[in-house]
Known about the structure:
By secondary structure, chain A is α/β, with parallel strands linked by helices. Chain A folds into 4 domains: about 35-220, Aldehyde Dehydrogenase, Chain A, domain 1 (3-Layer(aba) Sandwich); about 225-405, Aldehyde Dehydrogenase, Chain A, domain 2; about 465-640, Rossmann fold, CATH 3.40.50; about 645-880, Dehydroquinate synthase-like - alpha domain (Dehydroquinate synthase-like, alpha domain).
Amino acid sequence: MAEIVASLSEERIAYLEGLLSQARTAAAVFTQYTQEDVDRIVKPMVLAGLEQAQYLARLAIEETHLGVVEDKALKNMVATEFVYNYVKDKRTVGTIREFPERGVVEVAEPIGVIFSLTPITNPTSTVLFKCIMAIKTRNAVIFSPHPSAGHCCYEAVRIMHEAAVKHGAPEGVFTCLESQTLQDNAYLMRHKDVGLIDATGGPGMVKAAYSSGKPALGVGPGNTPVYLEKTADLNMAVVDIITSKTFDNGTICASEQTVVIDDEIYDSVLQKFSDLGAHICNEKETELLGRTVIDPNTGFMQPMAVGQKATDIARMVGLKVKPNTKLLIAPIQGVGQGYPLSVEKLFPVLAVYRAKSVNEALTVCVDVNHAGGIGHTAVIFSRNDQIIQKFGELMNAGRIIVNSPGSIGALGGVYNDMVPTFSFGCGTGGGNSTTDNVNVYNYLNIKRVARRTQAHMWFRVPNQIYFNMNAVENLRQFTSRSTVIITNPAMEQIGHVDTVRRHIAPGTLVHVSVIPDAEPEVKVVMQGVEALNFYKADQIIALGGGSVIDAAKIMKLKYESPQADLEELAAPFLDLRKRVVQYPTEKVTQARLIAISTTSGTGSEVTPFAVLLDKEQGRKVTLADYSLSPDVAIVDPQFVMSMPRGLTADTGVDCLTHALEAGVSIFASPYTDSNAMQAIRMVFKFLPIAYEHPGDEEARTMMHNAACIAAIAFSNASVGVNHALAHAFGARFGVAHGRANALMLPHVIAFNAGVPTKFMPSPNQRGYIAHKKYAMVADLLGLGGQTIEEKVKNLVAATEQLLDRLAIPRSIAELGISKEEFERAMPELVKIAFDDPSWRSNPRMPLLSELAELFWSAYRGRSLPTVAKASQPQIAEEWSCV
Amino acid sequence: MTMNAEWLEIDGERVVQGLQAARETLDTAQGDVVLNFSSVRRIDPNALRAMEKLAGLADGKAVKVVLRGVNVDIYKVLKLVKLTSRFSFLA
């Protein structure tokens, strides 16, 4: 900037600063205007422009000696009337668009001061167009016209300014440099008060605009290829091309430059051109033309030819043509170096190329497009939709005009429904920031006011759940031709399989597939699928704990949809609704899955999850999708009456963890809360009884139901950091899942109840509520306490007491794991826990250091309980409302 | 020491004249000059230029000019032309 300032006199800088001050003031004042205010100003401006269209056209021709007065008048009218027709009902002030379903509103913010460069080829029409856009968007403009079109532009600006101010626009809203130099432009382009540069002109001007470091709309040169394909309406095509290429003597940069014609129609097309007043150059004439109108040094068109009539150009070159010749047509055999006429020619000279095939034609069009016309305009005449489609894909052009004249077609609003413009964005290929037909929206900063939306929630449960003692009798109502029972050896030994068999509907062929009592491997699953296929099963009964039911879920998936790729389906996801991998919906066969749980913890009989052991990769993968949920769940306590005490304790605490984590999850809802809270009450009351008196049928029933109810809660609200820690720790040290959960649980409650170092984004919750939810649990359990803190403390204490009562070790250290060993494992434990998706629904986002601290807390173990009020949970008797 | 503030009402229909009067007050002001803009709905370029002049003059005379009741649309205009730092504002 210092160099630029140095190159300008003090007087010149004062003059430029004066223009800027006027514009800045006008732009600031303009911000107070309403939509109605600006619309009141725009209409009379348009009328003034229309009234002066011919006057301004004459001025432009007198000054620039380019183009055709009638066409320039027409352009002035398009720049006013057509542009007005497009903008008149557009909202450009305040709220301009609303998307109520998304809670988003778009609000217009003016840019302020726009520095606008206008070209020699379309001087007054460009000014009229930009003035209307600026008023409509409440911006002020400083115009810098092409030096050879200064007077006509100044006059156009004056007419627009007078009309605008007369109808209420702020004084100084448009100013125009009376004479300008490159230094003036450079100064204004870099000035802090200029918000946007809108440069319509040649490549030098556009480059200068983009080099200024300011946001810029730059438009540059084109080189429009035209494909005249053999199915086209040839009469229409030839007239359109002549209309376009001769319009204002070819000065519109979107006009046709090289027409590639299919071999079969080439001769007849040329004849039609000739019949309508085009001169077809012979080889010698073409060579002479190329040498004269194209600068051999630069490869660009000679300025002397720009905007001149065909006959004048012929005279320049020394060609003998008829006096009424409209267009000079030069056959060329290639594009690029050696074919000077294959570049942009803003005068009525048109290159033509004979193509032997569609492929050749398209290839030549690509070459022309890339010979200086990237991002600008391309034209095709064809009735073949496939070829039109292909052309559209191949051409890098902001405007691809079909069966219409290039120049007038690209301007928009006449031959098509594109936005009317006098500024063609050429995209990144043309060094521009947009491919738009530049319009009012390019003159605005569009702000988005986004209101908080609630994520859609869901609550999904299996169709049918049968519970309480002898619920298995309900099996009889499910008719089946062929049923396969998936179970493990223990179920056979203790007679559970026979019990189930007895209740299957009569006439059903029943087969038993026994799998190992461990997390299912791919191999085991595939063997099960073979059995299902062999017996053509229409019903699967999973009888067992979580592993068996999980195995059956995956078998069903692979049986119904053999194409399902388990590895792909196990891909991680953040939000179930936005997951990348979708579960198959196409099924080759269908089978009903009935899950009968034989433990009271995982709740797998109602969950949409299944864990698979990938032995080859040495890892567990979790599949999650509601399509995995069993169709029918049977929660019959007769199958858990013989559960050992240790298993009762571990699975019972697993159930409690599910419920507590679902309760404070960021996905918790009133639907899941009702289940989570009820499950917590049932666990606190009945787990100790089931543990101490395994034969207590009521306690067993309630715990079996609690496991299912908690699973319904976490199937919809998910779990939390407790599970992430337990997964990592359990896998590393071979500790049962429920026990691992138990070791972490009191520490996690205390962690979540504290003020988070990092909050989890949770659009459905207003503020941090985990501690309040725990307090609510404490109230439900009748634990006492006056404040939230006291209630949380009491809940931690009650949980610790419960764990003590279940003889769960107080610490990881008690498991015999040395401190050194635990310390060695810590980095890996933290890494795995952090990668575990479970914590992503936790209310508090755990830092890596916090995960480590939680592990260490669990290692050191829980303290002796100090309950503020009651030493035993005083559970209200209303629990029996279940 | 007690400072007496000069209070001037700016008429929304005659903002430039009001600012002219404020400029004259600067010469005799014993303390701050408070201009009540409550009835001004919108300002035009002339008013804005008058405010720039007033700010310049007040700087020269070390008088604090307080604008009272400026609506937020006008405040934004003053912000855009970088005049807010040259006045004090009173709700």
